[in-house]
Each structure stands twice: as structure tokens, then as C-alpha cells.
## 1
Amino acid sequence: MPIRAQAPAGKEAFDYAPQDDKFPFSGHWVGVFSDDPRYIGATTLGDFDHDGDLDFADGQREDVGGGALWWEYCGPDHWVKHVMGTGHKYWSGGNAADFDGDGWADVIIGDSWYQNPKNPRTAPWARFSTGGPKPEEIILGDVTGDDKVDALYLHKNFQPQFWSPGTDPTKPWTLGPLLEHNQQQGGAIADFDGDGDNDILAGYRWWYRNVKGDGSQWETVDIFASGFDDSPLTYQGDFDNDGDIDFALVTHFGGRVAWASNDDGKGKFSLHMLATDKDFLHTIVAADLDNDGDLDLLVGNNVGKSFIYDNTDGKGAFVEHLIAADTRSHEARVGDIDCDGDLDIVGAPWGDQNEGGENTKPPRDHVYLKNEFVEGGGKPLFDRQPFELGIAADCKKP
């Protein structure tokens, strides 16, 4: 098929030019999940077909029955929908990594993971149980110190916990020690105390120190007693360029955006509020979205506006920019999708009408925001670290 050069008939509203000079993102239509497009989460980016660019994947909650899909990137206005599988159970969470070590990106959704068949356009993806519970969020990272991926599971119905695949990841994974406080979402894995191993963050209230560095013993550390809601989303990074790990956070049910500075480099944080006037936020990603060498913040609604907070001095002096007035940013993901040297955004709607979903605009569409920074004369930046594990596109400097 020829590569489509514009949105199809009826989807022209998603084909629009950039509206911000500093962060110029053009809008493009990706597709619609199914005839009943509610409760779509588990979003992730990965080069699933090994063609050198990033594709997108997401899943639907099992009580709706839509299963899991991946969307092959062919061009900004042309994405091809492929079936991944069915049978997972989740509230929203998913991610991607190479779990079986074969060099191909696999996908984890809720209590299951889908194995990339290496010819994913035509072959079925096998589904295997992790043994884990039904999560709201899954964060991937190494917390056991063996240089292999572990999966942090969060939901208010159970204690935060991580699961580790064994030599044979198709067998049930191993459950690590349970952490202390139930938390809906807001997980991050990073070295918050600067001792060389990864710790765990859960929401804005607590982080957990990896005492021995191997995930066998955890110390609960209080962060903030109040000042945010109980279901934030978070993302880690060094926002003030002082060499330690801070974190950013947005409220799910409230309207606040903030970041927390790691004041002593050992996990003592101070809160810096950036906005209090938003609604139903469900994306926070820290990334260099203007190629200037520091971390900016992408913030998005389930449905509606998306913002970038420009790190103007590289030290946490953030300025808000509206980059899209009507997009779909439930768990939006960031990566150099088209391999042109700047970072793009792709997201899906959630579809819950009580949480900023589309009351009058079904079907609920997926949207791609293409970064036009390089096309506008900006200097490309390649060889970035991937934003998810083991899934980077093969984007090389020309």
C-alpha cells in the first residue's frame, strides 16, 4: 500500500500544524482500537518489527475484551494495526523490554507478557503469565543488581511489589519482598540515594531504599506528608543538573504539576509546584524535547490538552507551553519514532467518561505528535538512551 500522506476522511481534525514555536509538534491520526474503545492503557514504544523505527503498542482491560494490539509505524499519517493477543488481566499498566534475550522487544501487560515472534506482522504472539497481580502500573528496571529487568507492580489493592523473570521467562516469575504502603500508581526505579544501586519510588509519599543493593531488603523513607493527591504519576530525572536523581509528578484526579528536588543527593526532597489548574492528567515524561541538553516535562490529559514545561535554565526553572489543544494522552510515550533526531509523542485515550474521557466523540482515537524541531532547522540529536528498556530504534547520525 502507498504511504498515506494525510489523515483519512473523517479524521481531518487530527491533522494539524504546530501551534508553539519553541516546541513545534504537528498532529497526526494513528487509528482506533476497536468498536468498543474503552479502558485502553498499557501503552509502550518499541521497534517490534526490526525495521529501524519505533512502533506503538497498547492493550484493553479484559472486561471489555479487546486484547492487545501493536501499531506499525509506516509514516506520520500511516500506522497499520496488528493483533498481539488476548488473555491478560490489568487495570491499566504495561511496558516493553526484551524479556527472553533474543534481541526482539516483548510486551508486558498486567499479569502477562507477550513474546515477540520475530515476524510480528504475520505470526501470533505467545502469552505467558508472570504470576503477578492485576496492576494499575508496571515500571521496569533492575532492582536486584543482576543487570536484568525486573517489573514493579502497583495498585491500591496490594502492596508494591516486584517480579523477576528467571532463566526461562516463560515460567512464572519470582516475587521479591513486599514494600510497605499500598499505592495506586506513581512508580519509578532509580538511584535516589546515590549509592550505585536502584531504589523504588511509589507515589509522592514514600520511596524505598535498596539496603543491600540486591532487592532483598528495603527501608521505607517518607517524602511528603501532604500537598498532592494519593494517585499521582511520576517520572525520574536530574532536572537541576546537580548530578542526583529528582522526580516530577502530576495529579490524576486533581490539577497539579510539580517536581521534587533531591536536596542532599541521598533522597531528601523539596516540592516545587508548577501548575494547579489542570484536570485529569495522566502523562508525565521527562525528556529533552528541544535538544538543548536538559530535561523538559511532557504533561498530558486523558483527552484534551498536552503541555511541555521547558527547563529554561537546565536547573528546574520550568515554563509552560501548550503544544496541542486536542489530543489523546493517557500514558503517552516519548521516543524518536521517525529517526530524524528529535523526540516525538504518541498516546491513546482512556475512555472513562468520569475521568476526562470522550463523552461525545466516539470512537476514541490514538494520536501521534510529530516533533518538527529538526525540520524547522534545529540540530538533530541521536544516540539517546531509550525511554523504555531494550526497545530503542536504530536511529543513527546520517
Note: The two ends are 27 Å apart (CA to CA).
## 2
Amino acid sequence: MGLQRFERRLERLVEGGFGKAFRSGLQPVEIGRRLVRELDTRRTLGVRGTVVPNQFTVRLAEDDMERFAGFHDALVSELSDTVRDSARESNYRFVGPVSVVLVSDPRARVGDLQVDAAIVEGMEGKNGALVLPDGSRIQLGEDPVRIGRLPDCAIALSDSQVSRHHAEIRIGENGFEVVDLGSLNGTTVNGEKVLGEHVLTDGDAIGVGETAIRYEES
């Protein structure tokens, strides 16, 4: 499913005027498939589940890099989301923020693709943000971010399934965590109901009523 969503988003990039870049050489979907394969082949068993690489360096031919230059940032964003989606679908975990970097390799020929994947723990004092469905971001810090129906909430949602004070994102001993505030319908992370506090990892989807809020680290 992660790759299917990636392919659909690539179609929108083509429609947005980048179609010529897709006609020859390395295809972006090949990069997405390779990153997903790296998750499966380099997974390892950790204390809290199966841990997979979170930092990827993609080495391309200079000509392929030049073709992608016009939509480089959008492509990197889509590739990062594909990694997160695929890991979530397989119940894999990251130990740090997801990073995808495209670099040119003067030794590579057009169509060549090499990926260096690594499991890299996040640094202490890491930064976190909440990404809302409309793409807006709320930077996390020392102050808790409350989610609910009342206007005094940092994220106020007009949804009858959301309680007045529904959930809260705050800093804990192990990083940012989501806490359900005794809501009627509960709070989920990646589809699983939160019981007490739940420590967040990069790419987690927080479900509050009909709204999905993505947590990202940087």
C-alpha cells in the first residue's frame, strides 16, 4: 500500500509538469521500491520490536540527479513518506528520524541506483512536530499541546467524536508521548488504542476522532 500511494503521488507530479523527467533513465518509483526492500532486508530485532533503517543515502548518476532537480524536494518528501508508510504497514519501528538524501555519484551511469541504509538513533533533545491534514505544522517543545473540541486547545477540532479535552502531546523521559485525557472515543497511534502514555516515533499517525495527525522528528 505504501508503494501504491507513492505511485499515485508520482502521477500528480507528472501532471504538475515534471513528466519529461520520467521518460528516460532511472524512474523515481524504482527508488521507492528499493527503499522499501531495504526495510525488509536490513531489519533487526530490537527491545520494542522489529527495528529498520531510518537514514538512507541514494546514489545516482549525475544525469539522473539533474533530471530530478526540478522536483527534488517533493521527491525526497514522497520517498520519506513511503518509507514511513511501509514501516507502519509491517509494524516496523524506527529509533530515530527518517532521512532520505539524494546524491550524485560521478562513477554511476544513467539508470544506476545504489542505496546506503543505516539504523541511526535520534539525538537527545530531538525536535518534534505535528503535521495536520492540511499540511500545517505545530512545533513541539516544553509546553504540552492539547487536542480537543474546545477553543483553548492548541489543536481545536470541530468533530462530534472528539472530547472537549481529548488528548495531549507532551515531553516525557523517553521523548514526546501522546496521552489520552479520558476521552469518550479514545486515541489511537497507527490504529492501536492508546492506554496511558504512548511514546511516539517518527512517522506515527495519531488518530483523534476522524482526524489523523502525523508526528515527525527532526
Note: Residues 72-89 form the longest helix (18 residues).
## 3
Amino acid sequence: MENIIEAGDLKKTYKLPGEEINALKGISFNVKHSEFVAIMGPSGAGKTTLLNLIGGLDNLSSGGLKVLGNEFSRLKEKDLSRIRRKSIGFVFQDFLLIPSLTALENVEMAMYLAKTDVNRENAVNILKRVGLGHRLKHLPYELSGGEMQRVAIARALAISPKIILADEPTGNLDTKNSQNIFDLLKQLNEEEGLTVMMATHNTKLGYQSKRAILMRDGNIEEDQKITGD
């Protein structure tokens, strides 16, 4: 099975007035197509930095990072933007829905921003896939936290991505909704072959994935395959 992500001696340094912060200190790993990888570790471990680099939201300082066959260190911002729009779906802790738009309109907006055809029927079907066929016309404030995150996942799916990057997607949810959102991501991985990388503090959820990468202080402490449920 081919690698969809390849990181070699990947480093990221943030230069601030009077100091440098080494967020990633030279990490190496590969992710194969259709893997589900949980990135775990305490705050400051480098989880979000890693996802931002893989998603083309930030630039690496040194090392190699190849995503979907593209060497990110060699790409200009317009090329990174194109890859983000066409191939990578993002899910964040804070949902980031547009409050004045309905669930359906939020998904359609994602299509518009990705410069793909805004297809209402497709948007409806995506919301049905995430269990929100009965919430199409609801505004975000009319939805529960779990439902808002489902809309956020539907929005990520609107571009038919090859990779889903989820940064603490259950961080603002209770235990039941956290498990439901994880189960949805796992279903998308298993049934549709989406590659999922999920950063999480929740070790109970993380160890339900197929693979766990444990990070601390910008390094990978452990990279383990997980068998069973």
C-alpha cells in the first residue's frame, strides 16, 4: 500500500523576539493510504503544528514532507492552496461554522470556497451521511455541539478529500458525543477509505484508532500499531 504522507527529519521552528521555539525537532514517519492515525500527547507536544504542516497551513523549517506525492518544501503558496482546496478536509475543535448560514448552506459554502460545483443535492446527501438529514435548515445555534461537529465534518467532506485532518475534534464535546464523532470518523475511514489523522488528548479514543503516534516536546516518543477494538 502506497504512502500518502511521508515525513523525513521534519522540523518546525518559530522565531519570536528574543527566542526560538522548536515545535518539531526532526520527526520521521509515513502514513499509508486509508490509515487512521491518532496523534496523542500533552499540550505543546507539537500535534497541531504537525497537522498544520501536513495540511499546508504552515511552512516547514527543514526536512522533507511529501503529501499526496507533492514535496511541500518545493511548493509555492498557490500550489499549497490548491492541494488544500481539492484534497484535504479540515475539522477543528471549535467547529468554525458560519453562524448566519444553515447546516446545508455551510456545506455549500465549503464547495464554493473550494471552487467546485455547488451542488445542493450532493450537499444534502453529505449531511445525510453524517446523520443530519433532519437538520438541514437549522442554524448553528440551533444545533448541539455534537451536531455542529457533524456539520463541520460534512463541510470537510464537501470537497471529496483524500485526507481528513482533525485537530482535537472532540475537545468541546461530552463523553457520549466525543465517542459518536470518533465513531463517525472511523466509519468514514473504514467504509470510504479516507485517510484520517486525528490529534487528541483523549487517550481512550486515540487507542481505538488503528495506529497511535505519541508525541512529547516536538518528538515522537512511540509509534504503534493497534490491533482489535
Note: The chain has a mean pLDDT of 93.
